[in-house]
Amino acid sequence: GEEHYNCISALHKSMRGSDENASLYWLARMLEGGEDPLYVARRLVRFASEDIGLADPLALTQAVAAYQGCHFIGMPECEVILAQCVVYFARAPKSIEVYKAYSNVKECLRTHTGPLPPVPLHLRNAPTRLMKNLGYGKGYKYNPMYKEPVEQDYLPEELKGTDFFKERKT
C-alpha cells in the first residue's frame, strides 16, 4: 500500500540528507518487508543522476553495478550490494545542477510558441551533394582539428545567450 511509497521516500530523503544510518534502516525495512530488490536498484540509478549528478560521476556506475549485481544473484545475497550502494550515496557529495538544467531545457521547449527553431545550417548533416549545395554543414568547425575549443554557435539563433545552467533567458 502506501508504505511502499513512504519507505522509498524515506530512503531517498535519508540518502539526500547524508544520513547513512537512516538510509540503511529504510533499505532494510523495504527488503525485509519483501520489496523487490530490482525496484530499489532502479530507484538508486535515478538517485545517482538526480541527486548526486556531477558531484560524483561514479555514482551512476555504482548504481548500475548494483542493479546488475541484484539481477545476477537476487535475494537474499544482493542485500549487501544494495547496502553498499545506499551508504556510498549517503556519503557522496550532492549536486542537482544537471537535473535543474535539463528541467530548464524542458520548460523552454514546453513554453515555446510557434514551431521550434530549425537546426542551424552549419550543424546539419550533409550526406548528399544537394544538402551541401543548400549550405548544410557549411562553416562548421570540427573541434578535434583545433588545439583549443573553437568559437561557434550551437543553439538556434533565437536561443543565443541562453544558459540552461543559470536562469533561463526570457
Describe this entry's structure for a reader:
- 18% of the residues are buried.
- This protein has two domains: 2-91, Zinc Finger, Delta Prime, domain 3; 113-159, no CATH class.
- The radius of gyration is 22 Å and the shape is elongated.
- With 170 residues, the chain is mostly helical.
- It has seven helices and no strands.
- InterPro entries: AAA_ATPase_RarA/MGS1/WRNIP1, DNA_pol3_clamp-load_cplx_C, MgsA_C.
- Keywords: ATP-binding, Nucleotide-binding.
- This is WRIP1 ATPase.
In short:
The chain is about 55% helix and about 0% strand. It has about 170 residues and is an all-alpha fold.
Per-chain topology:
Layout: H1 2-16, H2 20-32, H3 37-52, H4 58-73, H5 79-91, H6 97-111, H7 129-133
Helix pairs in contact: 1-2, 2-5, 3-4, 3-5, 4-5
Pfam families: MgsA_C
InterPro entries: AAA_ATPase_RarA/MGS1/WRNIP1, DNA_pol3_clamp-load_cplx_C, MgsA_C
GO molecular function: ATP binding; DNA binding; enzyme activator activity; single-stranded DNA helicase activity
Number of helices: 7
Question: Per CATH, what is the topology of the largest domain?
Answer: Zinc Finger, Delta Prime, domain 3
Report the strand count.
0
| Overall spatial form | elongated
Provide mean pLDDT, rounded.
Answer: 95
**Count of separate structural domains:** 2
Unreliably modeled segments? none
Protein name: WRIP1 ATPase
Organism: Trogon melanurus
Keywords: ATP-binding, Nucleotide-binding
Pfam family, one: MgsA_C
Task: Label this structure with key terms.
170 residues, mainly alpha, Zinc Finger, Delta Prime, domain 3, 7 helices, elongated, AAA_ATPase_RarA/MGS1/WRNIP1, ATP-binding, DNA_pol3_clamp-load_cplx_C
